[in-house]
């Protein structure tokens, strides 16, 4: 049944989808090319971005061949793109492992954290936003608006550290960071125990994330609802004698949600930025922390690879949001 | 013939940041069964506000300050929102101006009408769908169009759909608020005929609101003229056209060109309607009236029966 | 002449009246003034005893390790004996300066680009907006980290530059949208027809009309700039020749004192959040003033 549904969507919006995919591919190539240029043109020795003195001679040879470092820059560009599509970003200076495998692990950890957090923040934010828009001008509204704004502008690392200080250090309720408790995992526990352990480590960073992000969604939903409630069809709905709940949810919220969907994509982009700070504080082994460490260590292959993957994820999220919006709003023609 | 709707001394005002605006003041009239009443006046005279009052669809900052609205024997002014919800659409429904957003853009038109039916009658969805199909045929729309979205309809089609929706719960009373204003004259003509036929066929009472007195003349048995929130004249259509008594009504008549007869000079009414934040003590038409006298400035004329069935609020004629 | 002057005066009075009524603006401005006072007080404080109180090089020789608040050191010292209060005061200067300058730069650039793209359209529009889109798509902090890695961040001026780079696209998109709708209005048509040059149209006719929304972005961009600069400094990409709140937190974190020295950990983070919050409050207040649909009737 799911496949059938997808088939219907594709048939309806085939042309639009293809158009968007092409746009994304173009954007992606532009970004990657810029990165290529920056990394090659700026420093004095272009190869320093893939080679480092601590590598063995044969490792250096392999990289030289793979990336065509003795070729003219135009050729290097095409080799770079080819390697790129195959997911070859070279070897990490720091660990000697292929960049791609490091990134894949870390990416999954980040996705776990970010996706859960964004979904929860989204649900909480939208619900509160909808409720306070309905109660325009009340004290509740003012309270939540200011609360949401406060957390929205709180400095992320500080919030994380405060939580760690209170709940992990003083109250000893939660771990001081990390994703797992290594001692437990050495004993080869069951899948259930593994999940529980990860979940236990997930809680504080998740709460931090949700607090930081719910305000944004809440304000967006509230503003969108307020605009929607002034429309004519809301008067029509009241005139038809429909129940308040129906008017609020079916008529108002459904229309108010449309701009929120686009905002969702933009917020994925922001979430990844936030991931950098949260992962650093909570020592969560995700891609955000990876990019920071790699840059500080001047592990350039890893930096390039991590950034490229982050870009892909963000572009994909934007793509999904565009398609969802086009699907939800029957006025968009495709 | 009995009275279906009776309005007694109705008053309504809006609270704005600059003060209280008296939008409807001391309005009284009656609609008997089978009648179509027209409500005419310029923009801002309070006719739409009056219509909204009757359905109690007022915005947050508006309230009914006094008077009674007796519909089907009961005064609905003191009724709660919950009680009104029962009456809305089933007792009295509204034909809105077919602006783009009168219908919810994200739902199919047919579904929105079905929704209205299901909110009031305990019937199965399939039955409701059948009913909507019949309604579509009645208003001259192809039932296949039920599956379309509002933006896929033309202006005329949207208006017909809104009419169909207003009829969905077999109301006793329909308020039509400028239903043809947004349409071109040919479609306007069709719609007016449509409404007339439906009203006679289903024996409903109707209140037709418009600034266009010619449209009202075609569709209504009685006409009420509003100015600055007041009823200033109310009479049988023929009587009103034959013998308009109020200076404003007279001016209204003469500002419309006529195809027949000799070429006349059009006489617009000079001046502007009064600021309803601070309504004048006397007759609200006083500053623009060419027959005005001292008493008109000081005292508000009462709305009383001047000739049989012909009501008027003017010092001069009394 | 007098009539026009009176109109302007009454417009200003109207705006001022609305500003005074807004709780958001009042709250935001109060907090902002507090930090303004701190920023102004900084050189005064240093002057009391430059050897101990200089935020970069001042050290108290009598102190070993990080100590808590005392009369001499109102917020205590860091692990090598530098006064934390001085650092905090200097931080407010940096936050204000950097925040506001990034905001002004990005708003001017963003508005200019938005006006040009919206007014001239066609190829200018496509090129400029594509550029804006690309920058917008990329997540800000990771992008800035990578750029810092390539170019280095030895000075606050570089930080200023690269931050402005990431803030102008949002503003330009919004201004472009407004310009597009304004472009069709009769008063622009008549200006064109009477031979007014394009540049003049943009500067004299279009720019004043996009001013309200530019103002809004001017305020909220300060919030963004403060938070991003703090984030960069916290991660270690700040300007080492100066002191900012983010760097205070960084030292605290890196030296391992986050749990041991709450007097060191709490103030900088709190200040960053409060100042960022205050500017955003002002922005929200402005938005309510300007957007009639959100107002109560």
Question: Could you walk me through the main structural features you see in this protein, from its secondary elements to its overall organization?
Answer:
The complex is a heterotrimer of chains A (334), B (318) and C (297). With 334 residues, chain A is mainly alpha-helical. Chain A is 78% helix and 0% strand. In chain A, helix 1 packs antiparallel against helix 12 (300-328) and helix 6 crosses helix 8 (191-229). The model of chain A has no long low-confidence stretch (mean pLDDT 83). Chain B is α/β, with parallel strands linked by helices. Chain B has a domain at 244-318. Chain B contains 10 helices and 12 strands. In chain B, strand 1 and strand 2 form a beta hairpin. In chain B, helix 3 (109-120) packs across helix 4, helix 4 packs across helix 5 (155-167) and helix 5 runs parallel beside helix 6. The longest helix of chain B is centred in the middle third of the chain and has 18 residues, at 185-202. Chain B starts with a strand and ends in a 6-residue tail after the last strand. By secondary structure, chain C is mostly helical. The interface between B and C is small, with 5 and 1 residues.
Question: Which terms would index this structure?
Answer:
heterotrimer, A: 334 residues, mainly alpha, 12 helices, 78% helix, globular, B: 318 residues, alpha/beta, eight-stranded mixed sheet, four-stranded antiparallel sheet, 10 helices, 25% strand
Spell out the blueprint of helices and strands:
The complex is a heterotrimer of chains A (334), B (318) and C (297).
Chain A: H1 2-41, H2 57-67, H3 73-85, H4 99-134, H5 139-153, H6 156-170, H7 182-186, H8 191-229, H9 232-239, H10 244-281, H11 287-296, H12 300-328
Chain B: E1 3-16, E2 19-32, E3 36-40, H1 47-55, E4 62-71, E5 74-75, H2 81-87, E6 92-95, H3 109-120, H4 125-139, H5 155-167, E7 173-177, H6 185-202, E8 205-210, H7 213-219, E9 222-227, E10 230-236, H8 237-242, H9 247-254, H10 294-298, E11 304-307, E12 310-312
Helix pairs in contact in B: 3-4, 4-5, 5-6
Chain C: H1 2-21, H2 23-48, H3 50-53, H4 84-120, H5 122-137, H6 140-151, H7 156-183, H8 186-193, H9 198-235, H10 245-254, H11 262-290
Helix pairs in contact in C: 2-4, 2-11, 4-5, 4-7, 4-9, 4-11, 5-7, 6-7, 7-9, 8-9, 9-10, 9-11, 10-11
């Amino acid at each position: 049944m799911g496949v059938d549904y997808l088939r219907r969507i594709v048939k309806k919006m085939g042309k639009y989808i293809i158009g968007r995919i092409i746009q994304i591919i173009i954007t992606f190539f532009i970004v990657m090319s810029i990165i290529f240029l920056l990394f090659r043109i700026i420093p004095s020795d272009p190869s320093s971005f893939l080679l480092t003195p601590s590598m063995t001679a044969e490792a250096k040879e392999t990289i030289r061949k793979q990336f065509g470092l003795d070729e003219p820059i135009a050729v290097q560009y095409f080799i770079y793109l080819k390697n790129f599509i195959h997911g070859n970003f070279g070897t990490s200076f720091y660990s000697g492992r292929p960049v791609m495998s490091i990134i894949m692990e870390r990416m999954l950890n980040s996705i776990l954290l970010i996706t859960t957090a964004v979904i929860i923040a989204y649900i909480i934010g939208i619900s509160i936003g909808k409720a306070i828009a309905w109660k325009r001008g009340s004290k509740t509204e003012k309270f939540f608006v200011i609360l949401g704004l406060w957390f929205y502008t709180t400095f992320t690392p500080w919030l994380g550290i405060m939580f760690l200080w209170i709940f992990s250090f003083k109250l000893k309720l939660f771990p001081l960071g990390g994703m797992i408790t290594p001692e437990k995992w050495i004993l080869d526990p069951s899948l259930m125990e593994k999940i529980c352990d990860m979940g236990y480590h997930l809680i504080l960073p998740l709460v931090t994330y949700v607090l930081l992000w719910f305000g944004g969604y809440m304000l967006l939903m509230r503003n969108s609802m307020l605009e929607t409630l002034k429309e004519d069809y809301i008067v029509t709905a009241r005139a038809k004698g429909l129940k308040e709940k129906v008017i609020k949810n079916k008529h108002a919220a459904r229309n108010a949600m449309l701009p929120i969907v686009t905002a969702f994509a933009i917020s994925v982009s922001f979430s990844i930025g936030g991931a950098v700070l949260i992962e650093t504080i909570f020592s969560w082994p995700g891609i955000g922390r990876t990019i920071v460490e790699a840059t500080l260590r001047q592990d350039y292959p890893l930096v390039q690879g991590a950034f490229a993957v982050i870009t892909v994820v963000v572009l994909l999220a934007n793509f999904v949001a565009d398609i969802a919006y086009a699907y939800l709003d029957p006025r968009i023609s495709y | 013939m009995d009275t279906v709707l009776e309005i007694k001394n109705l008053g309504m005002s809006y609270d704005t940041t600059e003060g209280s605006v008296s939008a409807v003041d001391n309005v009284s009239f009656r609609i008997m069964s089978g009648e179509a009443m027209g409500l005419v006046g310029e923009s801002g005279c309070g006719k739409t506000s009056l219509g909204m009052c009757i359905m109690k669809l007022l915005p947050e900052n508006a309230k009914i300050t006094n008077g009674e609205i007796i519909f089907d024997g009961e005064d609905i002014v003191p009724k709660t929102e919950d009680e009104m919800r029962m009456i809305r659409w089933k007792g009295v429904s509204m034909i809105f101006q077919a602006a783009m957003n009168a219908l919810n853009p994200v739902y199919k038109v047919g579904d929105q009408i079905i929704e209205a039916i299901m909110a009031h009658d305990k019937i199965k969805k399939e039955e409701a769908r059948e009913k909507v199909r019949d309604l579509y045929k009645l208003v001259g729309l192809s039932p296949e169009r039920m599956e379309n979205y509002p933006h896929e309809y033309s202006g005329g089609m949207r208006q017909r759909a809104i009419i169909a929706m207003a009829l969905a719960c077999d109301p006793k009373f329909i308020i039509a608020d400028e239903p043809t204003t947004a349409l071109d004259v040919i479609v306007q003509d069709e719609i007016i005929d449509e409404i007339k036929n439906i009203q006679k066929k289903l024996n409903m009472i109707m209140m037709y609101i418009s600034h266009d007195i010619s449209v009202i003349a075609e569709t209504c048995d009685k006409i009420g003229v509003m100015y600055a929130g007041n009823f200033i004249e109310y009479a049988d259509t023929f009587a009103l056209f034959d013998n308009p008594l109020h200076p404003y009504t007279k001016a209204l008549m003469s500002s419309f060109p006529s195809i027949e007869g000799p070429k006349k000079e059009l006489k617009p009414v000079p001046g502007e309607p009064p600021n309803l934040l601070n309504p004048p003590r006397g007759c609200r038409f006083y500053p623009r009236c060419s027959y005005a006298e001292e008493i008109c400035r000081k005292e508000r004329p009462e709305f009383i029966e001047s000739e049989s069935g012909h009501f008027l609020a003017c010092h001069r004629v009394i | 002449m007098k009539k026009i002057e009176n109109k302007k005066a009454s417009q200003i009075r109207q705006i001022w009246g609305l500003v005074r009524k807004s709780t958001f603006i009042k709250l935001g401005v109060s907090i902002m003034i507090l930090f303004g006072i701190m920023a102004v007080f900084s050189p005064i404080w240093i002057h009391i005893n430059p050897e101990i109180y200089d935020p970069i090089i001042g050290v108290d020789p009598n102190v070993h390790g990080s100590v808590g608040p005392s009369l001499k050191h109102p917020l205590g010292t860091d692990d090598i004996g530098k006064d934390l209060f001085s650092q905090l005061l200097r931080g407010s200067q940096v936050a204000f300066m950097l925040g506001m300058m990034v905001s002004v730069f990005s708003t001017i650039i963003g508005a200019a680009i938005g006006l040009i793209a919206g007014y001239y359209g066609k190829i200018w529009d496509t090129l400029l907006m594509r550029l804006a889109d690309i920058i917008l798509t990329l997540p800000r902090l990771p992008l800035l980290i990578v750029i810092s890695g390539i170019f280095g961040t030895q000075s606050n001026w570089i930080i200023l530059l690269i931050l402005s780079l990431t803030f102008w696209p949002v503003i330009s998109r919004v201004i472009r949208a407004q310009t597009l709708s304004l472009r069709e209005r009769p008063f622009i048509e008549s200006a064109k027809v009477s031979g007014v040059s394009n540049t003049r149209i943009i500067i004299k006719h279009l720019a004043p009309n996009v001013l309200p929304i530019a103002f809004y972005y001017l305020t909220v961009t300060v919030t963004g700039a403060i938070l991003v600069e703090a984030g960069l400094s916290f991660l270690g990409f700040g300007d080492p020749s100066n002191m900012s709140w983010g760097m205070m937190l960084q030292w605290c974190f890196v030296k391992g004192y986050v749990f041991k020295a709450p007097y060191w950990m709490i103030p900088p983070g709190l200040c960053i959040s409060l100042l960022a919050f205050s500017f955003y409050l002002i922005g929200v207040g402005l938005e309510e003033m300007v957007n009639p649909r959100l107002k109560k009737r």
